Amino acid sequence: MTIRGIRSTNFPLLTTGLFLSLFIVFSNTVFPQTHSDSLSFNYKNSPLKSALNSLIHQHHIVVVYQDRHLKDKQTSARCSGCTTEEALDTLLAEHNLNWEKVGNQYIISTPDSKEEMYTIHGYVRDYISGESIPYANVFFMNTSTGGVTNQNGYFL
Fold it and tell me: What is the model's pTM?
């Protein structure tokens, strides 16, 4: 059997090839791989979470955040013709939030909390005799902090 000059044994191969070609063409049209270089918005007393979600959906960008970082935060921000990075800077500036681009994702986080400083001091003594151990090395696990006891076994 021949269909318009095509043998029936080749017909499934041709239709599969045609289908794949059309799928590739339309998938690039329906699901764009790049986002717009220019963003514009004007928010007045809007929830920060809603503003970010609007950017995510309208401009097809991937933003990762924890709800607790955005909870109860309002934004009044304006941006015209800005990049994604400028838009995030504008939205997050007044809220003490940072963003970092990892691959094609923008990750929102709080600034690293400053390490608290502690002073640890004490004596190093022999377990059995209880005698002080002078000039012993003292190091704290998983840190680069340490020191040496004095002649009385005391460290600061």
Answer: 0.49
* Cβ atoms within 10 Å of 104's Cβ, excluding its own: 10
- Spell out where 11-144 has E strands: 39-47, 62-64, 74-82, 98-102, 105-109, 122-123, 137-139
Q: Which of 109, 124, 140 is the last residue of a domain?
A: 109
Contact 41, 89 (CB under 8 A): no
Per-residue model confidence as pLDDT tens digits over 61-107: 899 888 888 888 999 888 889 999 999 999 998 888 989 898 888 98
Rounded to whole angstroms, the Cα distance separating 28 from 52 reads 25
Q: For the chain, what is the domain count?
A: 3
Phi, psi of 69 (to 5 degrees): -75, -20
